[in-house]
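Students often ask why we bother encoding 3D structure as a string. The short answer is that it lets us treat folding as translation between two languages. Here is a chain of 191 residues written in the first language.
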Amino acid sequence: DHGFAEASQRIRIGVALRKAGFVKLDKKGEVESYEVGMWRGNGMCAFYMRDPRDGVAKEKLLGLLQGLAHDPKSGVGRVYYDHDLEARGGFPGAAAAIEARPGYMFNKGFDAPMVSPAEELGAHGYDPESDDMAASLILAGDGIRSSGESLGKVDIVDVAPTIAKLLSLDLPSAEGKPLTKALGNAPAEVK
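And here it is in the second language, the structure alphabet:
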């Protein structure tokens, strides 16, 4: 499925958005209005402009995120700009995204403190290229080579084509390819 990274601190990035004036709360603490919306995962957070044509607000947001990334106490690590996200195929339409530093994770909320101890021991949802986000793949059974040899880094899109090949099924629209290095004997007949 996915990996898991240790995290002992949580970041309420909404605190920074509120302090910068991007989010306004009503008397009940609910969002009343906003210039920047966010999608928050544990390891990454993407930001969307209410008005994508508002270049001034976008530049202000990017300045805020860059400042946070340069402050180790904020817990914010890397900033991904819209062109980075587009090239990677993630967060369509986002103005930017940020990743939490090692040991930190994002959490909900707009009330200070921005950084506080986490109740959880860790999180997922960080940059999928990170080694901590790699998952294990163990294959065993009929049709699988039993050499114990590592397949190295496996792309998740190759798993379904591998299983389909074992079952003598075609997956013509699959993105990936069967992991032939893992396949041994002819697959058993499916009944």
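Translate back mentally: The two ends are 28 Å apart (CA to CA). Keep this in mind for the problem set.
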